[in-house]
Design a protein that fits this description.
Blueprint: H1 3-9, H2 11-29, H3 39-44, E1 48-49, H4 50-53, H5 60-63, H6 71-92, H7 94-122, E2 129-130, H8 134-149, E3 153-154, E4 157-158, H9 161-177, H10 183-224, H11 230-258, H12 263-302, H13 313-369
């Protein structure tokens, strides 16, 4: 994938890579060793260090994620970001992807400081310096693991769960096997990414189920609308009765006009016509009674009279479903869309509390020492 294609598909990933490389170039141009930067130079450029990060410089929790210790460190993390970012960003969205990376990086740095602080209290550790995007990248990799587990597709392609587990496993094993690797940062970033990705996956699954349900609503409404309501039935019955009456009058007028030539024929025809008319009237009365009976039954079921204009129970239920179903679905859709952001907000609040806890403990120890 070219840089132009990457910028179009994953703009945040591209900007992160540019920031990693740009910051490294700025370091080298100011005299920092490209392969073995000094501790003073790393502190100057924003590395994570317990005494500074947990007292007056909490911004190092973020700045250290853009700083790398040497060229090989930059290349390794840059390749991992390129590999994961072009998949994860289109899947989660640019804004959520950026929030995921930053929170995972902060979570990794906080766990690193927590482990370091506990080691100092136990007398088994000492302050150190950490830097790199590894915590954030491990969080993205963990999020992709959850996406593969829930079978979330990217442009119609489902992620390979085994391949992702293999890559994540190599990173963790490499961190434990090689000295100087921030294992706590990797683990903290991965745990943060897992929690956030679970919110993504649950929201995605719920929205998918709601989309399927909404697609079936028009079929149900079409099925319900096939039943005629009371007004349509009454109007149709009245129109048919009017047509029969008009046909009967035309028949009577034509028959009498033709029968003027013979009085006997007139009398006989009138007698037959009266019988025929009587039969028709009886038939019309029979239909009218049936219509009134059906209308009475229909009105009884609807609990309204004929002139109330209230729709049948079927129409009422159909309209009720038509009005309430979209409102309920839209509210539920908004809730599921906000779920990942709510989870990330809660994680942010938890991180603030975590920093405050270590910060207060550190101040108490420093006060005792002084």
């Amino acid at each position: 994938m070219t840089i132009k294609q990457l910028l179009k598909t994953a703009p945040v990933t591209t900007l992160l890579l540019v920031s990693f490389i740009g910051l490294f170039i700025m370091q080298v141009l100011t005299g920092v060793d490209a392969n073995n930067p000094s501790t003073e130079a790393l502190l100057k450029w924003g590395a994570n260090a317990l005494p500074f990060t947990m007292t007056d410089d909490p911004w190092r929790l973020v700045s250290s994620a853009f700083l790398h210790i040497g060229l090989m460190h930059l290349l390794f993390n840059g390749f991992a970001m390129y590999f994961f970012g072009q998949i994860a960003e289109p899947m989660f969205g640019s804004a959520k992807f950026l929030a995921l990376f930053l929170l995972a990086a902060i979570g990794g740095n906080l766990l690193n400081n927590h482990v370091t602080w506990q080691g100092i209290l136990d007398g088994t550790g000492q302050p150190g310096i950490s830097a790199g995007a590894s915590g954030g990248i491990m969080g993205i990799g963990a999020a992709l693991l959850i996406a593969a587990l829930f079978k979330i597709s990217v442009n119609g392609m489902v992620l390979n769960l085994r391949s992702l587990i293999f890559i994540m496993g190599i990173n963790l094993v490499y961190g434990f096997a090689v000295p100087g690797i921030d294992n706590a940062g990797h683990i903290g970033g991965a745990i943060t990414g897992l929690v956030i990705a679970l919110a993504f996956a649950i929201a995605y699954r719920q929205r998918q189920n709601m989309d399927i349900a909404l697609q079936n609503i028009p079929r149900l409404q079409g099925y319900q609308s096939g039943y005629p309501n009371r007004e349509q039935h009454s109007a149709q019955t009245s129109y048919q009765g009017q047509q029969q009456s008009e046909q009967l009058n035309d028949y009577q007028t034509t028959y009498i006009d033709i029968s003027k030539h013979s009085e006997t024929d007139v009398v006989s025809s009138n007698h037959d016509f009266d019988n025929h008319r009587s039969d028709n009237l009886n038939l019309d009365n029979h239909h009218s009674n049936n219509d009134r009976l059906n209308s009475h039954r229909f009105d009884k079921d609807a609990h309204v009279d004929n002139n109330s204009g209230v729709k049948s129970p079927i129409d009422i239920n159909a309209d009720h479903a038509t009005i309430n179903e979209p409102k309920t679905s839209s509210k539920s859709m908004v809730i599921w869309q906000l779920l990942p952001w709510l989870v990330m907000l809660l994680i942010s609040i938890g991180f603030i509390w975590w920093w405050q806890d270590i910060h207060q403990q550190l101040l108490q120890v420093l006060a005792v020492i002084e």
